[in-house]
From TrEMBL:
<dbReference type="InterPro" id="IPR011010">
    <property type="entry name" value="DNA_brk_join_enz"/>
</dbReference>
<feature type="domain" description="Tyr recombinase">
    <location>
        <begin position="183"/>
        <end position="378"/>
    </location>
</feature>
<dbReference type="InterPro" id="IPR002104">
    <property type="entry name" value="Integrase_catalytic"/>
</dbReference>
<dbReference type="InterPro" id="IPR013762">
    <property type="entry name" value="Integrase-like_cat_sf"/>
</dbReference>
<dbReference type="GO" id="GO:0015074">
    <property type="term" value="P:DNA integration"/>
</dbReference>
<keyword id="KW-0233">DNA recombination</keyword>
<dbReference type="Pfam" id="PF00589">
    <property type="entry name" value="Phage_integrase"/>
</dbReference>
<protein>
    <submittedName>
        <fullName>Site-specific integrase</fullName>
    </submittedName>
</protein>
<keyword id="KW-0238">DNA-binding</keyword>
<dbReference type="InterPro" id="IPR050090">
    <property type="entry name" value="Tyrosine_recombinase_XerCD"/>
</dbReference>
<dbReference type="GO" id="GO:0003677">
    <property type="term" value="F:DNA binding"/>
</dbReference>
<dbReference type="GO" id="GO:0006310">
    <property type="term" value="P:DNA recombination"/>
</dbReference>
<dbReference type="InterPro" id="IPR010998">
    <property type="entry name" value="Integrase_recombinase_N"/>
</dbReference>
């Protein structure tokens, strides 16, 4: 009966032959990845040594053939370039691509770039990541771990390594980087908001920075800042009191500001029915508009979210709202809608959250939302005396509130 044919990438029985000088030669037949059976041999000082040397050669032979571009002796920076090219071609968000590339260049290239793939052990990876954690913070270390996991995963995919050492890296723990506590106000009440409006109306810089209308829209819609700055006039529908949030303003190195044609998640792509008082404010802006963007920069282009946050911090410095984060308005809107009896799903739809139950995600249409959500927001400003949109509260109000 004929002997079974060796499968590609496998070898037959290893035979050992003594050589002069006390050495031993180990020999076997190996079925290469082109289908050809070839004789492979290695020597050693004993049968065991020769066999081990031969098995190592066969292992490296398989890796060299299968992964023509990658072997365990390939430098990490070479594979990193391959991984980053693959990342660029992926469907990941532009901001994610930028974050990962910056993580490699800033935190990983120097400590691991010149290492060979087989030299990146679990201990090496942990040491590098903990050093990043202590120098740049836990967030940077987490990003670096994701990037290095992807790079070493490519070694595994090319059969250059058997396992990914990053899979065994332990928890990174707490950052040892000294932190300067920063005041951050993330929740406000509706009464807080009304006082804030009075403060902004009286602040000379607030009008210059176009913050008064912007804060009103925050309280009406509770948007993510980047999503709202991506809003253009064609997506404001005055006849139906709706707006379409369908993008995000981001900045990319070498590109500058641009609108990413999707929001943070699929749930963020939404059409909202907004309160009448909010649409009235937008109508007034539209009459004077000279840019396609609803809230443009001073030159008429896209407004940078980072600059907007800086301006808000500058105007609120020294006031009771110092440290106010734009996300506080998302909490404000959610609180108002919850108090009005809306369901968690309705609130999630209005804010563009994806965190609802699987049944709601899969079986319910969440495309156009907000009519019910708009009602409890509808009369909040008009019912408040002395707080009509556009009203100036005077310099004295600014002085009083600034001392609180």
């Amino acid at each position: 009966m004929a002997r079974p044919r060796l499968e590609v990438g496998t070898y037959g029985e290893i035979r050992c032959y003594p050589l002069k000088g006390g050495k031993v030669r180990a020999v076997t037949n190996y079925r290469d990845y082109d289908g050809v059976l070839r004789r492979v041999e290695r020597t050693g000082t004993s049968d065991t040594g020769a066999k081990n040397n031969l098995k190592t050669a066969l292992r490296d032979r398989a890796r060299a053939v299968v992964g023509e571009e990658v072997a365990d002796q390939t430098r990490v920076d070479v594979v990193a370039d391959m991984w980053l090219r693959e990342l660029d071609e992926s469907g990941k968000a532009a901001r994610t691509k930028r974050t990962y590339r910056e993580s490699w260049e800033r935190d990983l290239r120097e400590p691991v770039g010149a290492l060979l793939g087989r030299q990146v052990t679990v201990a090496t990876a942990e040491r590098v990541l903990r050093a990043i954690r202590d120098k740049a913070g836990l967030g940077s270390a987490k990003h670096a771990k994701v990037v290095l996991t992807g790079i070493m995963g490519m070694f595994v995919r090319y059969d250059a390594l058997d396992t990914n050492p990053l899979r065994e890296v332990g928890a990174l723990g707490e950052s040892k980087k000294p932190k300067t506590p920063a005041a951050r106000l993330t929740r406000i009440t509706w009464d807080d908001f009304l006082r804030l409006r009075a403060y902004l109306a009286a602040h000379p810089k607030a009008e210059q920075f176009d913050l008064v209308d912007l804060v009103d829209m925050f309280a009406a819609v509770g948007p993510r800042l980047g999503e709202f700055l991506a809003l253009d006039w064609p997506r404001v529908r005055e006849d139906s009191n709706t707006m379409l949030l369908e993008g995000t303003v981001i900045r990319l190195t070498g590109v500058g500001l641009y609108v990413q044609e999707h929001t943070k998640s699929a749930a963020g792509m939404r059409t909202l029915t907004i309160p009448t008082w909010a649409m009235d404010a937008l109508r007034k802006r539209r009459v004077l508009a000279t840019s396609r963007w609803v809230f443009p920069s001073s030159t008429g282009g896209l407004q940078d979210p980072d600059n907007t946050r800086k301006r808000l911090r500058k105007v609120l410095a020294g006031s009771e709202w110092e440290g106010l984060h734009p996300h506080a308005f998302r909490h404000l809107v959610a609180t108002q809608l919850d108090a009005a009896g809306l369901t968690a799903r309705e609130i999630a739809d209005y804010l563009g959250h994806a965190q609802v139950s699987m049944t709601q995600d899969v079986y319910m249409n969440r495309g156009t939302v907000g009519e019910t959500a708009a009602r409890p927001l509808e009369g909040l400003l008009t019912e408040t005396t002395g707080q009509a949109l556009g009203r100036s509260c005077g310099r004295s109000a600014h002085d009083v509130l600034n001392r609180r």
